[in-house]
Design a protein that fits this description.
The chain has 349 residues and is an alpha+beta fold. The chain contains ten helices and 14 strands. Strands 8-7-4-5-6-12 form a six-stranded mixed β-sheet, covered by helices on one side. The longest helix has 18 residues. It is globular and about 70 Å long.
Length: 349
């Protein structure tokens, strides 16, 4: 489950579980030529869990730790994409891992993670902002496998396969103009998500880290628990600190079990920093899925349709009487009439 946090970056097994992105716009859309209806999404009834991302520094200042309870966040993502259990675990792990890699960075920064493997899931892609807003997609959400005989866990690695993991860190526009994004790529070594993200942090960003992810899918196919931790050891950390961290992580058990046992991010942080001190209450935020606000989303979609050009738009309208657009991340669909699109085209001239 664990390897040492020594002089090279290490990771916790994901069993608790690039090719640069074309753009970093808030919404990626597909224009489709078929009939469809606006679809609503809801959470599991009776679920009162509150999501939280908590960042804490150890008392000796040698360790930074981020812990997330993202149960509702992952449930929303899986409901939107109508994922099968194994795909739910894969998408959930990718969302949680990217979220932790993105949170509490500079204002306006975005992190995009893309798993482009040769497995049946196809591409898994997540975009997260430093403010805690995150969204993701999986190419084939219906893919599912029997539990592994070896450990009775969801076989995410079989769905991901082997290929390339890419991470793009995008900085906001400033008075100095646009800054070039940082892009790193590493091979997908296990397909278990957490191990691959830890490998990226070690090889591309030279960050010593331990990364644990857990997504538990219930018999009713709802998300029972979903969360993770990202422990980063600062360059001046003492060997005693690293040894204590290794002991704590090995004793902690799986992330999903801790959440199912009722522990919150602060309590999990205290377990992982036992003997090192948690250094106070830390900084927290509540993650959200999106941006998927209807008005903003609809406006971006209309602009995407207008970008097709007047001739293409008229061809689609002549064929089916309207233009229908679905956001690949939000899975929300909107219809535009000829009048609406022509108005956008006119405004863009």
């Amino acid at each position: 489950m664990m390897t040492a946090l020594g002089r090279t970056a290490r990771h916790v097994s994901a069993f608790q579980a690039v090719v640069p992105f074309r753009c970093m716009y808030p919404c990626r859309t597909d224009i489709i030529r078929r009939k469809g209806l606006f679809r609503c999404y809801s959470m599991a009834p009776g679920d009162s869990r509150t999501d939280e991302v908590l960042r804490t520094l150890s008392e000796n200042g040698q360790v930074s730790i981020i812990v997330v309870d993202g149960t509702r966040l992952v449930q929303e993502a899986c409901t939107r994409h109508n994922t099968a259990p194994t795909a739910s675990a894969a998408l959930g792990r990718a969302i949680l891992g990217t979220l932790m890699m993105s949170c509490f960075r500079g204002e306006g920064e975005k992190t995009q993670v893309t798993f482009k493997g040769d497995g049946p899931f196809g591409m898994i892609q997540v975009v997260s902002e430093s403010s805690g807003q995150v969204k993701g997609l999986i190419g084939n959400p219906e893919v599912n496998f029997p539990l592994r005989d070896s450990d009775n866990k969801l076989d995410v690695s079989q769905g991901v396969g082997r290929g390339v993991l890419s991470v793009v860190r995008s900085l906001p526009f400033t008075d100095k103009g646009w800054q070039a994004p940082y892009t790193g790529m590493v091979p997908i070594t296990t397909g278990e998500i957490a191990e691959d993200l830890a490998t990226y942090l070690a090889d591309s960003e030279q960050v010593q880290s331990a990364l644990g992810l857990g997504v538990s899918v219930g018999r009713d196919l709802q998300i029972d628990a979903a969360g993770g931790f990202l422990v980063q050891v600062l360059p001046f950390a003492e060997e005693e600190t690293i040894a204590q961290l290794e002991l704590n992580i090995s004793k902690a058990g799986s992330m999903s079990k801790m959440l199912k046992d009722g522990l919150n991010p602060k309590q999990i942080t205290d377990i992982l920093l036992e003997g090192l001190g948690s250094g106070g209450d830390g900084f927290s935020l509540q993650p959200t899925y999106g941006p998927c606000e209807p008005e903003s989303l609809k406006s971006r979609m209309a602009s995407a349709v207008a970008a097709l050009g007047e001739k293409e738009v008229k061809d689609i309208i002549e064929e089916q009487g309207h233009v229908e657009v679905t956001c690949e991340f939000c899975k929300q669909t909107y219809r535009f009439t000829e009048e609406q699109i022509m108005e956008v085209l006119k405004d863009s001239e």
